[in-house]
Amino acid sequence: MSKTNLTRRGVLKTGAVAGAGLALPTYLSAASHSGFTNAPTGSTVTLGFNVPQTGPYADEGADELRAFELAVEHLNGGGDGGMLNTFSSKALQGNGIMGKEVKYVTGDTQTKSDAARASAKSMIEKDGAIMISGGSSSGVAVAVQGLCQEAGIIFMAGLTHSNDTTGKDKKANGFRHFFNAYMSGAALAPVLQKLYGSERRAYHLTADYTWGWTQQESIAAATEAMGWQTVNNVLTPLAQTDFSSYIAPVLNSGADVLVLNHYGGNMVNSLTAAVQFGLRDKQVNGKNFEIVVPLYSELMAKGAGANIKGILGSTNWSWTLQDEGTKAFVKSFGTKYGFPPSNAAQTCYAQTILYADAVARAGSFNPCAVVEALEDFEFDGLGNGKTFYRGADHQCFKDVLVMRGKENPANEYDLLEIVEVTPRGQVEYAPDHPMFAGGALGACNPGA
Amino acid sequence: MDAIILQILNGLDKGSAYALIALGLTLIFGTLGVVNFAHGALFMIGSFCAVTLSKILNLSFETIDPTRTDFLGNPAKIKTPYIESWFGPETGAAIIDWAVPLSILFSIPIMISIGFIMERGLIKHFYKRPHADQILVTFGLAIVLQEVIKYFYGANPIPTPAPDAFRGSFDFGALLGIDPNVIIYPYWRLVYFAFSAVIIGGVFAFLQFTTFGMVVRAGMADRETVGLLGINIDKRFTIMFGLAAAVAGLAGVMYAPINSPNYHMGMDFLVLSFVVVVVGGMGSLPGAVLAGFMLGILESFSSMNEIKSLFPGIDQIIIYLVAIIILLTRPRGLMGRKGVMED
Q: Membrane spanning segments where (chain B) (predicted)?
């Protein structure tokens, strides 16, 4: 007769160990312990849209938010689908992202770096946002990008034009669809040469912060390369409202071009002062005096009114483009809101679609999988023709538009006209270009 | 030489705005003893009176033009201002063009009413409270007012141009026998300077040559004695608050073509105007005007490249530097009364 050593305690112990052993693989792959921050567990996924809802860029923020809402609607299968119909990648099916319905939360950047970081942090920690997008300032973009890198969250930048965002401050978890100051210079310089000649003396007024510095450096380098001289570069405080005392010295400086490295209210006020002082009607060195505003925005063009007429600048995109993606987006946006979208709106819409598509192609919400899917991704159908998300610095490369204030607008939205669509090849640069030197992309951070 | 003349001209129009705002501020301080941090908001509301009248004059009806399309490819809606259909295209367009000067008439009753409501509804409850409380409540009011404006008009600047007749620049160079096109100055800024001179002169004349003004000046000097004579000085001071609001509003109306109005413009002027009042002497009307022009001109000169190359960043601190020097050497300000704010 055999004797077994089975005891109640022994069975329980063995069962517990075996059970734990069998459960371990499941435990390791369970969504709640998937190894990245805010892994979605239910039937929804939350995106965080961090835009200026108060402060001087609140109108840009409102337009960005409209675009985000439209993108979410399209991702969830609502509306007419917009640019999902023209996007070259067909990974998105209009059933959310990987079958999960897209929800969103919003934050207010106030166009202040600390406020933007606080609202992004709150959306990540309290609302479980898995991606942060939006913004209307390079200072904010750099700050929020750094936070997202630390938190293991993907940051899809909104309106940010400083070279630093994908230069010395680039981060592996951050991606910029918007163009940058270098590209503005590369696109504008040949047009300026063609229209105004090679022998020009330029006087720069520059907003005294990171974006202004990089734009001035870029425009001066591009124009000097074609023979222009930079007579002076005067830094103006960001809080300046009356630029008359900065404009007056331009009159007798011997310069025949004024470059306004200003954005927002600064641009509206400095341009207004320049026009009031008769610079547009002035002749210097036997040439007509010209004004250049390297970075245009539709909303600021509206603020400047008639002063914008005939003045050259550059934009990331325009609703007047005639490619299929642009037409689909303008139709969706215009039908929903009653007016055409801005540059900022198109970028935010495209960034949301690009993120969702990257997740769908990667088959995972893991930020490192998303980074891999976005790096060196080439696509079409989101406006501006064929576009490339370079893996080396996470900067998007696409055609850049040189615009001019329209002399005879047909309606209140018809303020800028396209002078030239500068091909992508002309605005590309090496990842180690001196203007983008310093800093390192680093490795992607999946977070928790 | 030409650069110096240009910067003096610049300083005059900037100083005009400072002087007008500071005049109202010091008028309120001198009469009611209230430090009104919402005064910049009154300047901003004045500018938005010009924006509002411009919008009213541009109210339009729509007609469909089947020959043109809108941005979505639908038949275009053509807007025609009612005023053009009532008075004819030319007269209507001329009225719209003169929206800013017409806003002077439009803004006066609005600004006086806002001043009355502000004083009776809120500020009178803080007369006997410390200055810190007054500053807090009026600063809070300024934020509320600017947020209300932003809600209705948005955050971006709204272009509000001067009439066509005043666009362009005047060639001072030709007038002074210097080379033409060397010293040119915008017509509207000259108009602004002249306008502010008229308003400042009007306020001084009102206080100097009317019985009402005489009572107010007496009240500013010795409120109790005037009260003992049976005069209701509080009522007169409330009217002065309305007048100060109207002066700030008019300064704002005429400033609209110089810088496109935006909801934040009041705050931009507020701190500088307070410095102007302190430098001029709290409660001193001539001091406010003198300091306004003086600091406006100094600020312009400090923006010159030659000065900035010697003292980088001087344009940002010059006003505060002067304020520190004045307060250290003459605590009551340039023309302040002895004993006022000298503690």
A: 16-35, 42-61, 98-123, 190-216, 237-258, 270-298, 310-328
Residue-wise pLDDT for A383-427, tens only, equals 989 999 999 999 999 999 999 999 988 888 889 999 999 999 999
Chain B from 152 to 171: CB within 8 A of any A CB: 154-159, 161, 167-169
- Least confident stretch, A73-77, B310-314, B321-325: B310-314
Residue B157, min C-alpha distance to chain A (Å): 5
- Per domain, the residue ranges of chain B are 2-56+100-329
- Answer yes or no: do B71 and A282 touch at CB < 8 A: no
Residues of A in contact with B182 (CB under 8 A): 251-252
In chain A, list all ranges with CATH 3.40.50.2300. Answer: 44-179+319-398, 182-315
Assess contact for B188 and B166: CB atoms under 8 A: yes
**CA closest to B73 among chain A residues:** A331
Residue A373's contacts (CB-CB under 8 Å, 6 or more residues apart) are: A357, A358, A359, A361, A362
SS3 A325: helix
Give residue-wise pLDDT tens across range A2-51: 444 545 555 455 555 555 444 444 333 333 445 899 999 999 999 999 99
Report helix, strand or coil for A149. Answer: helix
* CA–CA min distance B271, chain A (Å): 12
Architecture of domain A182-315: 3-Layer(aba) Sandwich (3.40)
C-beta of residue A419 within 8 angstroms of C-beta of residue A407: no
**Average pLDDT of chain B?**
89
Query: Dihedrals φ, ψ of A216, to 5°?
Result: -60, -45
Q: Which of residues 233-262 of B touch A (CB under 8 A)?
A: 258-260, 262
Tell me which architecture the domain covering B2-56+100-329 has in CATH: Orthogonal Bundle (1.10)
Show residues of chain B in contact with A244, CB under 8 Å. Answer: 10, 13-14, 189, 300
CB atoms near residue A81 (< 10 Å) = 17
Fold classification of A44-179+319-398 is Rossmann fold (3.40.50)
Dihedrals phi, psi of A404, to nearest 5 degrees: -140, 140
